[in-house]
Amino acid sequence: MRPHQLIRRLWDRLSTSEERSSMTSADEIRATDPTSIVRAFFRSLGDRNLDAAFALLASDAEIEVLPSAGQTSMDPAAAGRPFFSATVTAFPDLLLTVHRTVEVGDGVVLTELSLEGTQAADYLGALNQEKHLDVRQAWLLQVEGGLIRSVRGFWDENQLFRRLAVKRLDRIAIV
């Protein structure tokens, strides 16, 4: 089963109520249940606090940024911690809205969110044109021992580049 099919299947079986990450205290951030840890991770990213977000990752955490529907990332080197750094740098008005966060078992947490912001720097090879980006994403995170051990992100990369006004995917920087 392909990753996007697995995610769709899980969404169909789980609750559809909208929720917004609302971590407010240090005690909640230090909580050890997987859902709280994942919410704290995305809340920290949304607050542009990379140190707090990265503190929730195991030092050997595997991070894969995989566009959905089997697409190949246009910039595989942007995966991992550099991807998150580039995202908060390129979008100073970054808004992460968490729609659903569900633990699906064995410490695996599925999160659906929207990433929004106005581009203020080159991003994933796309020249800065000050375009507004809004992309729906799905993330699978594995939490073990109070730390995030793996992160996998899925979204439609074609939509992302269209929002950034990229006309040709074989030459990302040309608009």
Please provide a brief summary of the model.
By secondary structure, this protein is α+β, with helices and mostly antiparallel strands. It is built from 6 helices and 5 strands; from the N terminus they run H-H-H-H-E-H-E-E-E-E-H.
Report on this structure:
The chain has helices at residues 3-13, 26-29, 34-46, 50-55, 81-90, 157-163; strands at residues 57-65, 95-105, 108-118, 132-144, 147-154. The chain is an alpha+beta fold. It has one domain: Nuclear Transport Factor 2, Chain: A. It has a five-stranded mixed β-sheet with strand order 1-5-4-3-2, sandwiched between helices. The longest helix has 13 residues, at 34-46. It is elongated, with a radius of gyration of 16 Å.
